[in-house]
Amino acid sequence: MRIGLLGTGPWARIAHAPALSAHDGLDFTGVWGRRPAAAEELAAAHGTRAYEDVDALLADVDAVAVALPPDVQADLAVRAARAGCHLLLDKPLALTVPQGRAVVDAVREAGVASVVFFTTRFQPEPEAWIAEQAGRGGWFTARAEWLGAVFTGDSPFATPWRREMGALWDVGPHALSVLLPALGDVRRVASAARGPGDTVHLVLEHAGGASSTVTLSLTAPPAAAGAAVELRGEAGVRLMPQATEGPVPALVRAADALLTAARSGSPHPCDAGFALRVTELLTQAAALLGGTGATTGRRPSGGGGPWVSGPVPAPGG
Question: How much is the pTM?
Answer without folding.
Answer: 0.90
